[in-house]
Specification:
It is built from nine helices and eight strands. It has 217 residues and is of the alpha/beta class. The chain has a single domain, classed as TIM Barrel (Alpha-Beta Barrel), CATH 3.20.20.370. The longest helix has 23 residues, at 2-24. The protein binds zinc ion (ZN). Zinc ion binds at residues 35-36, 86, 90, 126.
Length: 217
């Protein structure tokens, strides 16, 4: 009888420890990011998907597109998403000098601030180019430069299946996933998101803004 009691106690302790270990596991955090928008229909669709799942993302807007669709930028900010700077006209950064690049950043900052009332702190360089004056000027203007660790290449017009596979293949705790809410042709990004978000949520991933991801690390 005593042996049975000991066994039961040991079992309870073991189960209890299991629960406490489980409770202490921090959630795996990842950041979905969308470049080049806003786009009249794709951004609106992506915002509604994010809302449906109650998750946050970061939009690196192009200043001139933000000017064209201010209500989408406002909606994104109001719904808790982060807005970052992705230049005003998406120029080839290699060809920019300090003055022209400075203008690209400042004009976009003014546009974002005018719409949302918040000055952006993140900058994502088009094509990930961050050499020379780009690095210097972005730093001078107080930006945190953000690249990515998972590239969906969705701007190529890839199928939802390929975009989904690109994310699932490389995603891990701390991933910054590069997507586009502005694609010149047909975009399959919204469809891919509808498939991949529930899968990643089921795997215990939490979707946060880039600032949240960086801050908590
Ligand atoms: Zn871009």
């Amino acid at each position: 009888m005593r042996r049975v009691l000991c066994l039961v106690l040991a079992l309870l302790l073991f189960v209890g420890m299991g629960f406490s270990v489980f409770a202490e596991v921090p959630p795996k955090k990842i950041a979905l990011t969308f470049d080049d928008g806003p786009h009249a229909s794709y951004t609106a669709e992506i915002l509604s998907i994010l809302k449906e799942y109650g998750i946050k993302a970061t939009f690196f807007v192009v200043g001139q597109n933000a000017e064209e669709h201010p209500s989408l930028v406002k909606q994104a900010a109001e719904e808790g998403h982060e807005i970052g700077n992705h230049t005003y006209s998406h120029p080839k950064l290699k060809e920019q000098n300090a003055e022209s690049f400075s203008y690209e950043l400042e004009k976009t900052r003014a546009v974002i601030e005018g719409i949302t009332g918040v000055s952006p702190i993140l900058f994502r360089p088009p094509e990930g180019f961050r050499e020379g004056v780009i690095k210097t000027v972005a730093k001078e203007q107080g930006y945190q430069m953000v690249l990515w660790s998972v590239d969906t290449e969705d701007w190529r017009g890839l199928s939802a299946d390929r975009i989904e596979k690109a994310i699932i293949k490389d995603v891990k705790d701390g991933s910054i996933i590069l997507c586009h809410d502005y694609v010149a042709g047909q975009s399959h990004t919204p469809e891919a998101l509808r498939r991949v978000i529930p899968k990643l949520l089921a795997e215990g991933y939490e979707f946060v803004t880039v600032s949240d991801l960086v801050r908590k690390r």
